[in-house]
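quick one before i forget lol
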Amino acid sequence: MRGIFIRIYLAFLVTSLVATLVTVLLAMYYRQWSNDSVNLIAPTGGYISAAELMLQRGGEPLLLEWLLTFERHPSVNAYVFDDQGVSLTPAVPVDVLSYAFAADSYQARVNPLGQTEILVKAPLHSLDGRVYLLVVEFLHPLAVFNLPIYLALGLVASLLLFALWSYVLSRYLTRPLLSLRRSVRAFADGQWPVRIAPRVLARPDEIGELGREFSQMASRLQRLISDQRQLLRDVSHELRSPLARSAVALELARLDAVPEQQEYLDRIELETGRLNELIEDLLHMARLETVQDRQHWQRFDCAELLQQVVADARFERPDSPLQLQLPAGAVTLQGDPRLLLSAFENIIRNALLHTAPQTSVDISLQVAAVAEIRIRDHGPGVPEHLLADLLRPFVRSEQARERSPDTLQQGHRGFGLGLAIAQRVIQHHDGTLQLGNHPQGGLQVLIRLPVVV
């Protein structure tokens, strides 16, 4: 909502500033070229008649008393000069003096941009034949007020008004979007069926249409995912059953086999085991893509988990050295330790397969804002343009780099699913997995996982 609020607020602010500027310019143009100045000059006839009447009835004292009444008028001032050019009032503005003694007869002066908007002068005749000069000054409306204070008050009032209206409007626009976002997040977390607020579905505008489209899409995807899960269960059962029968038949065949047939039976057993592993990996990866259940997550120490993985790897390959560096304290993570254990095993086994003979696989754990696990081998590395392909399913690493002669002789062949499964496990735990070539040679896997404080 913050982004929409700021945009609406700035839109109102800019619109008001432009509207105010245009209004002021039009008002000044109207004052300059319209008859409004004539309407302002018209009341001066009454002022002139009243001043001349005061002068004839009471002389200068009564006229001076009449002039003092203008001090209570906020936008009109009056000044009188005698036949010697002396003002009856002590304080006379410079503009009034210059206009009073200007040689432009008795024409009115209009200046809508100045403090004095209009000046009008006229002669006053006393009973003794003396001629006085009356000058009537109309002040600009903005000059009457304390402009800085009024501008500040108006600016604060407009900012508060725009803020309130922008908040109401942004809440009106973002409330259904926030509801949709919660529904999308629940759908992404696997909380089915997805329920969208009825008030969003009932809206007749584009937001309501979006909610209805999303509801239909979620229903279709839910059916597809349910069908996919059922298909995985059926495939698992249908494939594992004949493989189990094949394994039993293979053991029965060994009982009657001659020595010349043992090599072929061993080959059948090897391929059957590989097919079992492939099915298990496929089902595992499919489960990671469709199941996002986090209810069974728990806290655990990442250092202890890595120690367990390294201990298992050393037991399986005692001739392959592994170097493990851990921080002094515990590194607490939140997640499924069984899944992360499997992901670390896949990466470390892949590193052991490709590291050069008599070299180690280096594993380190560091803690900054996140937990960083680095796993590096001393193999030939991978061309830079092929690094991203290693995280795709069924892309075997030997397509990008050659394995060591020892591992080739041992008959190790992967299906290109280990790193793909590991990446999905890391993403499931809100982490990242990056591949890169170490500056000193070999492939380095960098895993970042959020730390629990």
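fyi The radius of gyration is 46 Å.
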